[in-house]
Specification:
This protein has 459 residues and is α/β, with parallel strands linked by helices. It is built from 15 helices and 13 strands. The strands form two sheets. It has a seven-stranded mixed beta sheet with strand order 3-4-5-6-2-1-7. The chain has a six-stranded mixed beta sheet with strand order 9-10-8-11-12-13, sandwiched between helices. The longest helix has 28 residues. The mean pLDDT is 90. The structure holds guanosine-5'-diphosphate and magnesium ion.
Length: 459
């Protein structure tokens, strides 16, 4: 493990009230002692842990900035090393100057996520918790913050500890049998072994099913607004956002690119995508827009098909309605309910379930709330009501836990088929390894590099 002292600017670079520089490592206080002049007559080495000190950062005799310094001594710090946070004035120049003073005094510029990596390597948090810090930072709604914070506290880790404990116990029982075989016992398994495996499989199943909802809360769903030109797609996006985000005109073909905006529907982030209207196009740019719209229609989890209530259905509408046939999540929105209605509503009602059709006016906002309710009920129709026991698993974690589950299924089969005990022991060892790869107990440097490179510098 690297044992040097690292430093970084931990707040965004830009103009702000304050900006923070973090230092962590064995030399943190020696470096601080050279660049910080506290207002009170106290040496850095005498400052107690978890104390805050007012003073100045100095370069020789020159005052650089007026600061507040917070000390957190090992092991009670983020990294479990000696740490200091220098709260400077937020501005590029003061921050960069203070950082360069730290570097001149032999601190090293931290790599992305290196503070968190140290927290992990020093055993303060496991890898799941380290990864959840990013999830907290990127939370899209309060609900997603809730599940990330629980994960950071160790909610998901505790499940894995439980799984690991059972697997380790099973393995040691089996190894005892291998080591001290009694003639009649060699091929037999203790009767509760199967039960213990079953218990772990069902715990993993429950985690995986809760993870489905967790993913929706954490990452949200994509809802593509589609429809012929001038149906009111961009107006609908603006109505969701209650602001003029997209350009709305009476000129067909106004929206050429794809706009994404996230809205919060009962805690679920819904990424609403406004696409170009579907119509026959001549220009290359508009054609690209239309192609993208069709692509989104294929890949979005939900389709909001906007129809113009003030006009009769045309061939583009019917084409789009045709596309819905192989989609399970869609809502037909009859827009412009404030104008006289000319659309063939009967035609639609004959072909689509009543609860998938909704009239509204994107212009006045009437009906938007009902649409949001409908979107939410479609989401939970797919995954069940949100209850608060959701977990979010990233792809790495989900992949490993599924691999562990597959091994347990194999073990279950092997027990049923009375396969020799040493094969089962091997499967158990691999399953434990999978669990350890999730928590980071057993992980390669390369994977760690990959995980922490996604963090900001200074985190
Ligand atoms: N009266 C009325 N006009 C609307 C409504 N929604 C959109 N429009 C108008 O329809 C035209 C096209 O709207 P726009 O949102 O750009 O449609 P898009 O091409 O589907 O994105 C604009 O002139 C809007 O003002 C509505 O609910 N009522
Ligand atoms: Mg538009």
């Amino acid at each position: 493990m690297k044992n040097d002292t690292i430093c970084a600017i931990s707040t965004p670079l830009g103009i702000s009230g304050i900006g923070i520089i973090r230092i962590s490592g064995p030399d943190a206080y020696r470096i601080l002692g050279r660049i910080f002049r506290p207002a009170k007559n106290i040496q850095v080495s005498e400052m107690p842990s978890h104390s805050v000190h007012y003073g100045h950062i100095i370069d020789g005799k020159k005052i650089i900035d007026e600061v507040l310094v917070t000390l957190m001594k090992k092991p009670k710090s983020y990294t479990r090393e000696d740490m200091a946070e220098i709260g400077c004035h937020g501005g590029l120049i003061p921050l960069k100057k203070v950082l360069s003073l730290c570097l001149e005094n032999n601190a090293r510029q931290a790599n992305a996520g290196e503070f968190t990596r140290r927290a992990f390597l020093n055993g303060r948090i496991d890898l799941i918790q380290a990864e959840s810090i990013l999830e907290v930072i990127y939370s899209k709604t309060e609900k997603s913050l809730e599940i990330s914070s629980k994960k950071l506290k160790g909610y998901f880790s505790s499940h894995l500890t439980e799984i690991r404990d059972v697997l380790v116990e099973l393995l040691s029982d089996i190894e005892a049998k291998i080591e001290f075989p009694e003639e009649e016992d060699i091929k037999k398994y203790s009767p509760d072994m199967l039960l213990r495996i079953e218990k772990i499989i069902s715990l993993i199943n429950s985690i995986l099913s809760r993870a489905g909802k967790g993913r929706i809360i954490q990452q949200g769903i994509n809802a593509a607004i589609t429809g012929k030109s001038n149906a009111g797609k961009s107006s609908l996006l603006n109505a969701f956002l209650k602001e003029e985000r997209a350009i709305v005109t009476e000129i067909p073909g106004t929206t050429r690119d794809v706009l994404h905006e996230s809205i919060n529907i009962n805690g679920v982030p819904v990424n609403v995508i406004d696409t170009a209207g579907i119509r026959k196009v001549k220009g290359r740019i508009e054609k690209m827009g239309v192609d993208k719209a069709l692509e989104w229609m294929k890949k979005a989890e939900m389709i909001l098909l906007v129809l113009d209530g003030n006009r009769k259905l045309n061939k583009y509408d019917t084409q789009l309605l045709e596309h819905l046939k192989n989609k399970s999540n869609y809502i037909l929105i009859i827009n412009k309910s404030d104008l006289p209605q000319k659309i063939e509503k009967d035609y639609l009602e004959e072909r689509f379930p009543e609860n998938r059709i909704l009239s509204l006016s994107a212009k006045t906002g009437k009906g938007i709330n009902s649409l949001e309710k409908k979107i939410y009920s479609l989401i939970i129709e797919g995954c069940g009501e949100i209850q608060g026991d959701e977990v979010f698993l990233n792809f790495r974690q989900e992949g490993k836990i599924k691999e562990a589950k597959n091994l347990l299924l194999k073990i279950r089969e092997a027990i049923a088929a009375e396969i020799t005990i040493d094969i089962i022991a091997e499967h158990l060892k691999t399953a434990i390894k999978k669990v350890d790869e999730i928590t980071g107990r057993d992980i390669s440097e390369e994977i760690l590099d990959n995980i922490f490179s996604r963090f900001c510098v200074g985190k």
